[in-house]
Amino acid sequence: MKGLINWLIVAGIGFALMAFSYFNYQYQPGHNPWKDAFMYIGKADPNSQAEGLDYVQRPIRLLPISQRARLFTDAAKGIGSYVEKSYRAVFQEKLILYPDVTDDFTDEMLERGRLPNSDANEVVAGFYTSNKSEINVDGQVFKVVGQFKKEIRLFVDSYLFSNSAAAAELFNREHKVVQNAYILQLPIEELASSEIREQLKKSFPKSQFTTYAPLIRTEQTPFYLYILGMALLFLGGSVVLLKVYCFLSEKVSNKWLRLPLAEIRKFKRLFLSLHFIYFGVVVLFMLLAHTLPELQVCLLGAIKAQVADGSGPLGIAGKAYMSKSIPLAAVTTFAINFSLGSLAYITIPSVIIPGVGILAAAFRASMWGLLLAPNFDALTRMMLPHSFTILLEGEAYILATFFALLIVVYLFRKAEGPGVFNKYSKALLMNVRGNLLVAAVLVVAAIYEAIEVILMMKS
After folding, report:
1. Which of 10, 127, 376, 458 could form a disulfide with 150 if both were Cys (CB 3.0 to 4.6 A apart)?
2. C-alpha–C-alpha distance, residues 314 and 174, integer Å
3. 228 and 204 housed in the same domain
4. If we measure between CA atoms, which residue out of 243, 252, 293 comes closest to residue 72?
5. How far is CA 387 from the centre of its chain?
6. Count of domains for the chain
């Protein structure tokens, strides 16, 4: 019992570090009119369904994408043209003509400097823009006289131009590179409405418009602190679960559950090693994602496109979660995770080629790391509750991998008796029993994930 409490404390310290990283470095309390702002970019005008939506229209130009970000544009294009446009928009700095800049912004919103004068070649820059003193566009030089705070999220990578004659020339409507930016400031609770989402979808069709919402990068110190906390949470949680299985192996009388629990106890070093490998791969690829955020954004674009199209397992799951029905979301999540994540990708391949399921488990862990790395503030906030989903779902796939590897162990272990067929049959039966444990863990994970995600969607 003492050992169990100690490892629970380790997991608790890990979660506390994650929470400290988020709330001390990235959480922004209080009202901020630009917190939930986003924009649609395109040359077209919105459809008639946009009537009633509160938005402002501004001319916009996108600067060339950086050389590093360009490395992944082909991959994004391969997923779909809309994904490529969305990917490019994230990594292209933006020039926006904003004649009434002094009406919509105040000096309190500035990190430094002042707002531009309306009749001068001046701009105010976003927090992450590359040019800090001046910017040269088509031979015209504009002085950067101020910089927004990071809290002015929508414009972190933008330059807002005053209404000078030189600026008006840059944003001539007949210029090929000039597009329209339709800026909306909708609170998250309104965006959660299916009616509003459908109205936006029809008003700004993705064939004509690119949706842009800012991604606020996590700085190095809070990122590594967060990752350390997550690693401790996974470590402590893994050992706690192992101790629970060992305890249950002596208490459960039903042989369909007792026998696989006994195997975990017998081969607990192998079992714990799989945890270190699986969650180690997750953490390792999170570190990789931090050095290559462009790769993560590209992959997230692919996931978002599949969910939006309602195609594949993610599309089905997305529809279930959009219904905001916790029972439906939980049942859908369990059905997908157990039938595909466990049986189709780990157990069945390992029955055909013993042990090969570990490759599928390693691939899933690597994708989790790349997709869920807390590189951006939205992901950092989400991963506070979602890290427990990762722990539980990861536990289920580790269980499936463990019993799949027992096929190899049984085949080469003399204690399992004579004959390859006899050993294989025993291993196959153990996998059937072991998947009862997998299913039990995935049920708990699915219920927790459904509650967690839907509550996050409403907050």
Report:
1. 127
2. 41
3. no
4. 293
5. 12
6. 2
